[in-house]
Amino acid sequence: MTEFDARADGETRSDPDRHGENRHLKSMIAALRLTLENGEAERDAVQQRVRAAYEGQLAELQATIVALRAALEDSRHEGRAAVERAVASSADEIAQLRQTAQVLRDAMEDMRHEHRQEIQRVSAAAQTETVQLHAAVRTLREQLEEAAFHTRAQRQEGLAVAAGEIEELKATCHALRHELDRARGRE
Questions:
Q1: Tens of pLDDT along 136-145?
Q2: What is the pLDDT of residues 41-53, one digit of tens each?
Q3: How far apart are CA 61 and CA 90, in angstroms?
Q4: Which has the closest alpha carbon to 33: 59, 2, 73, 63?
Q5: Which of 40, 42, 33 is nearest to 4 (CA)?
Q6: CA distance to 10, 156, 161, 172, 178, per residue, from 168 (Å)
Q7: CA distances (Å), origin 34, targets 17, 39, 41, 132, 160
């Protein structure tokens, strides 16, 4: 019993009216105490439920954080791997393009060299052909001049032969006329 209960007990003995009132107060106090204890118990139960719910949510949030952290790490790892693959692929592609460019440069240089050689060969062949053509022209000119000379000589010779024959024919004709005239004169 508390001091308050003891005083209330002492006061109720001295006064009968007060005794009922005290009893009423005691029962009210007991009811309030019971309500208070029930409220505390309910509060404790609510706190336990809230704490359990809070701890459950906290555990869920921690699990979610762990899962998200793992997903983030996986994503970072995959991102790094993708970047590394892209860089490696780009490096390979750049190397291939450089190699292709070098091959094309070499091929172009070879073609230029071959083109220069072909031009030199064609130029040399043209030069040789030009020299040969000049020689052929000179030879043909000489042959033409010689043929023209022979033709003139043959013509002159032919003219001389013809003139000689004409002179012979004239002389023959003259002699025949002369003989004819003599033969007529004899007759």
A1: 888 988 888 8
A2: 888 888 888 888 8
A3: 41
A4: 2
A5: 33
A6: 209, 17, 10, 6, 14
A7: 25, 8, 10, 140, 178
